[in-house]
Design brief:
Blueprint (H helix, E strand, L loop, with lengths): L33 H9 L17 H8 L1
Length: about 70
């Protein structure tokens, strides 16, 4: 869970790395932390509601982790 869904602050941005997966036909994100990408997307804005549309975010413990 710490790799993809670490506890992050609202102002944390995705980390840039020089190692790891390189682009081979697909643009891979340098940082695998979904929570940091979500924080960057929200840009510090307040959120009134969250819709979890199944898939990876179906388990309740992942939903609670992202809301934390």
């Amino acid at each position: 869970m710490e790799g993809f869904f670490p506890l992050t602050g609202a102002g944390e941005m995705p980390r840039a790395r020089q190692s790891g997966l390189r682009e081979i036909g697909l643009p891979y994100a340098a940082d695998s932390a979904v929570s940091r990408h979500l924080a960057a997307f929200l840009g510090g804005r307040a959120v009134d509601a969250v819709i979890f549309a199944g898939g990876t975010l179906r388990p309740r413990f992942l939903q609670e982790r992202l809301l934390a």
